[in-house]
Amino acid sequence: MEALLCEKLGDPTVPHNSPESPITIARSHPVPSLASPTAVRVRIHATSLNYANYLQILGKYQEKPPLPFIPGSDYSGVVEAVGDAVSRFKVGDRVCSFSAVGSFAELIVADEMDLFPVPEGCDLLAAGALPVAFGTSHVALVHRAQLKAGQVLLVLGAAGGVGLSAVQIGKVCGAVVIAVARGAEKVQLLESLGVDHVVDLTKGNVTESVKKFLKMRDLKGVDVLYDPVGGKLTKESLKLLNWGANILVIGFASGEVPVIPANIALVKNWTVHGLYWGSHKIYLPHVLEDSLKELLSWISKGLIKVHISHSYSLQEANLAFAAIKERKAIGKVMIVIGKSSVARSKL
Ligand SMILES: NC(=O)c1ccc[n+]([C@@H]2O[C@H](COP(=O)([O-])OP(=O)(O)OC[C@H]3O[C@@H](n4cnc5c(N)ncnc54)[C@H](OP(=O)(O)O)[C@@H]3O)[C@@H](O)[C@H]2O)c1
After folding, report:
1. Is residue 309 a contact partner of residue 328, using CB atoms and an 8 Å limit?
2. What CATH number does the domain containing 171 carry?
3. Per the domain annotation, does 288 fall within a domain?
4. Are residues 229 and 316 part of one domain?
5. pLDDT tens by residue, 151-181
6. Which residue, 119, 145, 143, 146, is CA-closest to 130?
7. Which Gene Ontology molecular-function terms are recorded (predicted)?
8. Which of 189, 229, 325 to mutate to test the pocket of ligand 1 (most atoms within 8 A of CB)?
9. Are 211 and 323 contained in the same domain?
10. Which of 26, 323, 335, 341 makes the best surface tag, with the fewest CB within 10 Å?
11. Residue 252: strand pairing partners
């Protein structure tokens, strides 16, 4: 089968044919076998590019798989073969899932308990983009922060993969949603999703813009901060938080881990949640499963929508990584397996 192999650490945006590229296309990689009676082999249709996949190839992610490895986490596809004891799926079923590594390939094997049926009304491309981004935001906002209708949610990096999902989940929960992003195209999309206030960082600063909005709506401050960016944006956002606010530490796309002063957290009764979605698979698997089931039902009812700004073939993976690195992604960047390398980019 065809697969993308990471053979050394480095920048995956370098063209594949350059000697510096850490990734290569293996044309006849061994097909993964059905190693247990409950194993299912899935022919992958689409797999999403997460910031973590980029960091992992750079060698800057918390999980460092031994080299060489096939990168990739969330995916969708069609069941191609099942083990003798599989009872939940049959050949031809549409499924989605995620794994620690391995989805940048034509085929992947998973246990049947780790697969989710893709419901009617949800296309396979969207299902392949859903687990990590929407799963993270759903567990963070619904399970951890227990976001309630009428509360004020502030989302940083709001037009990125996790950010755009947080904005939509916030709206489904009935929150007043404030989004922070950079540039007219991102702002336009966020406004089209019914976000209550968008801060365009190319035009102004977060504190000033949000304070003006809160005053206009007669609101005191922010109840939940969703932060996948870090750095000075976090520092500024802390000035907007209410007594008893929840801070969701999601990631550090700015490259800077922020400092959240414990003395102010004490005085203001803030709760700081470190949230690593993937580890729920080990420690709270039912939370993660229930969350994905709910998200798949929301998507088939049209309550949420996966926005895909770029779609590439496996051979164009370096361009997909570049879209993430250069902050061009709005929502998700996808790799569609078997997609012609001529028909690429914006869908
Ligand atoms: N905790 C978890 O379980 C979990 C799960 C998924 C992702 N994450 C983390 O969340 C973060 C975002 O992931 P993502 O997939 O949403 O990435 P993404 O699609 O690339 O979005 C990141 C957003 O951050 C903003 N940003 C601000 N400063 C940036 C910088 N210096 N470089 C790049 N982007 C910058 C960008 O928005 P503007 O250009 O509009 O400012 C961009 O839209 C990553 O750190 C990732 O590892 C964590």
Report:
1. yes
2. 3.40.50.720
3. no
4. no
5. 999 999 999 999 999 999 999 999 999 999 9
6. 119
7. oxidoreductase activity; zinc ion binding
8. 229
9. no
10. 341
11. none
